[in-house]
Write a structure and sequence with these properties.
It is found in: Cytoplasm. The protein has about 450 residues and is of the alpha/beta class. The chain folds into 2 domains: about 1-225, Spore Coat Polysaccharide Biosynthesis Protein SpsA, Chain A (Alpha-Beta Complex); about 230-440, UDP N-Acetylglucosamine Acyltransferase, domain 1, CATH 2.160.10.10. About 15% of the residues lie in helices and about 35% in strands. The N and C termini lie far apart (about 95 Å). About 40% of the residues are buried. It binds uridine-diphosphate-N-acetylglucosamine (UD1) and calcium ion (CA). Uridine-diphosphate-N-acetylglucosamine (UD1) binds near residues 140 and 172.
Length: about 450
C-alpha cells in the first residue's frame, strides 16, 4: 500500500500574504494542486495533507474525500513532528510493499516520473531524493560512509565545517517502509540546533536498523525547487514555463519566442501551429492544424479548428471557432460564442452567447449578444444587438444571406428574414421580412437659410 504525506503546515512568512503559501499558484494553479495531481498519478491508497497555518482555507479549497485526508499540525515542531501528525491516517497491511512517500506542498513541480524512480530505487528500504548544488548553504547534507552508502542527514545548522563542505543535499522528499517509519518517528528527538523534530533523523535510525538507504536524483533541477518567497515563486514560474514551451516546441509548435509564452492549463496543438509572443493560454485550449495565434492574445477554454487565424490582441473565452475563420485584431469573444467555418470577426467586435453560421462576417465595431446568425450574413460596422432591457435578455435571429447596414440597432426579441437587407442607421423594433429592404430613417432635408449662431460679445 502506498501512502503519500504532503507537508503543508508551514506559515510561508516570506510570501507576505494572507493566502496560505501552498495556495499560491504556479502556472495558474495552486502549488498544492500540482502536488496533489502528481500524487494521484502514483495511484496511492491514501494521501494525507498535513496542514497548520491557513488550514481552513486549504481544506475548503480541497475538501477531504475518499483517499484524501487532512492532519492538523499546530503548533509546528518540525518536519518529523509534521509526519507524526499523519501517522494515524497511514494505511499498512503488513506487506513488504507498504510505503510512505513524503512530499512538500511548497515543492510543487516534482514530476511523477522522478517519484516513480525513487519508489523503484528504494527496493523495500528507504530512498531519499537528493541533489548536488554548487552552493548547498541552508540545506540538509547527505553524509555518506566510506563505502559510499548514505549514513545520515545533517541539517546545515547542526553541521560541522567538513559536513558543510558536502554538496549533496536533501531535497526533503523521501520514501520509507510505513511500519518502520512509524517506529523511527517515535524514536526521534529535538536535541538539535533548532529544537525541532527532524524527519531527516530517520535516516540514521534506518541505517542502525540495517535497512538500506538509497539516493536518487530528479531528471531536472527545477523539479526540486521550493517556493518560500515571491521571488522564488516567480523564478520557478519561468522555469516551468520554459519547460512547457520546450514541450510544445518538441511537439512541432512554432513559438515566436519561447520565453514569452504562458501556459496556465492544458494546451493541445495540431500540426504547424504558430504562436506569437505574449499569448496566455488558460483552462483547456485546443488549437487545430495550421492555426495562427497573433501576439498578445488571451485564450481561455476555447476550441480553435484547423486553419484559423487569430490576429493580435484578442481575448477569447469559452468560444468555439470554426475551420479557417478569421478573428481580430482586437476581437473579444465571450462565453457561448460559436463561429462557423470561414467566419470573420474583426476589430472591436464583441460577441457573447451567439452562433455565427458559415462565412458570416462582423468586420468592425459591433456588439452581437444572444443571437443566432445564419450563413453568409454581413453585419455592418456599428451594429448592436440590444439584447437586454435592464431586466431580461432576449435573442436576435438573423437568417441566411442577410445584409445588416452600418449603425443598426436590433432591439430583441427580433428576427430578420432570409436575404433581407437592413438600411444603415435602422433601429429595428419589429421583425424584418425576408428578401426586402427594411429601414427606419427620417427623411433627409437641408435648410438653405440657416446660419450658424455667433458668440455674443
Ligand atoms: C528541510 C529539510 C532539509 C532539506 C530542506 C529542503 C528537515 C529537518 N530538513 O529543511 O534537510 O534540505 O527541507 O528544502 O526536514 N513543515 C511542516 N511542519 C513543520 C515544519 C515544516 O509542515 O513543522 C513543512 C513546510 O511547510 C515545508 C516543508 O515542511 O513545506 C519543509 O519545511 P522547511 O522549514 O522549509 O524545512 P527546512 O528547514 O528548509
Ligand atoms: Ca525550505
Amino acid at each position: 500500500m502506498l501512502n503519500i504525506v504532503i507537508l503543508a503546515a508551514g506559515m510561508g512568512k516570506r510570501m507576505q500574504s494572507d493566502l496560505p503559501k501552498v495556495l499560491h499558484p504556479i502556472a495558474g494553479k495552486p502549488m498544492l494542486e500540482h502536488v496533489l495531481g502528481t500524487a494521484q498519478a502514483l495511484s496511492p491508497q491514501q494521501v494525507v495533507v498535513v496542514v497548520g497555518h491557513g488550514a481552513e482555507q486549504v481544506q475548503t479549497r480541497y475538501p477531504a474525500q475518499a483517499g484524501l485526508v487532512f492532519a492538523l499540525q499546530s503548533p509546528q515542531h518540525g518536519t518529523g513532528h509534521a509526519v507524526q501528525q499523519a501517522v494515524p491516517a497511514l494505511l499498512d497491511d503488513g506487506s513488504a510493499q507498504d510505503a510512505t512517500l513524503v512530499l512538500y506542498g511548497d515543492v510543487p513541480m516534482v514530476q511523477a516520473a522522478t517519484l516513480e524512480r525513487l519508489l523503484q530505487a528504494r527496493g523495500n528500504g528507504v530512498a531519499v531524493l537528493t541533489e548536488f548544488l554548487g552552493d548547498p548553504t541552508g540545506y540538509g547534507r547527505i553524509v555518506r560512509g566510506d563505502d559510499g552508502t548514505v549514513q545520515r542527514i545533517v541539517e546545515h545548522k547542526d553541521a560541522s565545517e567538513t559536513e558543510r563542505a558536502i554538496n549533496e543535499v536533501n531535497t526533503g522528499i523521501l520514501v520509507a517502509p510505513t511500519a518502520k517509519l512509524k517506529d523511527w518517528l517515535n524514536r526521534i528527538d529535538n536535541n538539535n540546533a533548532q529544537g525541532e523534530y527532524y524527519l531527516t533523523d530517520i535516516i540514521a535510525l534506518a541505517v542502525a536498523d540495517g535497512v538500506p538507504v538509497q539516493a536518487a536524483q530528479a531528471h531536472a533541477a527545477w523539479e526540486t525547487l521550493g517556493v518560500n518567497s515571491r521571488i522564488q515563486q516567480a523564478q520557478l514560474e519561468r522555469l516551468w514555463q520554459a519547460e512547457l514551451a520546450r514541450r510544445q516546441l518538441e511537439q512541432g509548435v512554432t513559438l515566436a519566442d519561447p520565453s514569452r509564452f504562458d501556459q496556465r492549463g492544458d494546451l493541445q496543438c495540431g500540426r504547424d501551429v504558430y504562436i506569437d509572443v505574449g499569448c496566455i493560454f488558460e483552462g483547456t485550449v485546443v488549437l487545430g492544424d495550421g492555426v495562427h495565434v497573433g501576439p498578445h492574445s488571451v485564450l481561455k477554454d476555447v476550441v480553435v479548428e484547423d486553419g484559423v487565424r487569430i490576429e493580435a490582441y484578442c481575448h477569447l473565452q469559452q468560444a468555439q471557432i470554426g475551420v479557417e475563420a478569421k478573428v481580430g485584431p482586437y476581437a473579444r469573444l465571450r462565453p457561448g460564442t460559436q463561429l462557423g467555418a470561414q467566419a470573420h470577426v474583426g476589430n472591436f467586435v464583441e460577441i457573447k452567447n451567439a452562433i455565427f453560421g458559415t462565412g458570416s462576417k462582423a468586420n468592425h465595431l459591433a456588439y452581437v449578444g444572444d443571437a443566432d446568425i445564419g450563413e453568409r450574413v454581413n453585419i455592418g460596422a456599428g451594429t448592436i444587438t440590444c439584447n437586454y432591457d435592464g431586466a431580461n435578455k432576449y435573442r436576435t435571429v438573423i437568417e441566411d444571406d442577410v445584409f445588416i447596414g452600418s449603425d443598426t440597432q436590433l432591439v430583441a426579441p427580433v428576427r430578420v428574414g432570409k436575404g433581407a437587407t437592413i438600411g444603415a442607421g435602422t433601429t429595428l423594433t419589429k421583425d424584418a421580412p425576408a428578401e426586402q429592404l427594411t429601414l427606419s430613417r427620417t427623411h433627409q432635408r437641408s435648410i438653405e437659410a440657416w446660419r450658424r449662431p455667433v458668440k455674443k460679445t
